[in-house]
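Backbone shape codes
____________________
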Amino acid sequence: VGRKVAPMGGLGHYGWLLIALLSTVFLAPLLQDYRVGIRVADLISGTVMVAGVLSAITRRIHVLMLAGIAVLAIAARFVDPFVDTTLTALSAELMSFIFLLSVFAIIIKDIFRTSLVTTDTLVGSICGYLILSTIFASVYAFLVILYPDSFMINAGLGVEEGALGEDSSHYGLTNYFSIITLTTVGFGDIVPQNSYARTVVSVEAMSGQVYMTVIVARLVGLHLSRSIKS
């Protein structure tokens, strides 16, 4: 059994993970036009995310599993621009997807095992929501690599439909589109064009609503239960 790393100030054990996710969400769009900048963002975000995960889990097997997947994901992303093949690009997105899905599962398990609403619970819930967004962003990136015309892109975004999966130009756009879809805002500047893309978009829109409903119900239930007992 492992040992939890000291929490980050008032943000609890998920503090570093929250910072990593926020940097991924807000930093990626700013760096999407710079290949080197994207690689640096990948490395920083991946490293901080691993540190955040290690501070929040206790089982050694989980530590080893996530560390291994993270190393593979970071290595694939770093190598991809130099090799520039479809296989390396798909491998990078697949490893990222597996890593994020594993982290999401650990966080959800942690939230539903707790009996009190604490800072860890609240910050963990926010991290879960943001990770859900990055999971679908990874799926969208995977799609545009396989099918470059999966989405119709508004001309104002300055990215051609067939180029969305090239030169890492999908990095910021897929994160942006995922957030807009998860929150069901739907500006319409990026529109799915094939059945695969439409299916994933529909699943994400429903997932966002279900997540918020279930998590809010869980937190409110824990708070009311605590209030009644006291």
In short: The CA atoms of residues 153 and 190 lie 5 Å apart. The chain has seven helices and two strands. The chain has a mean pLDDT of 77.
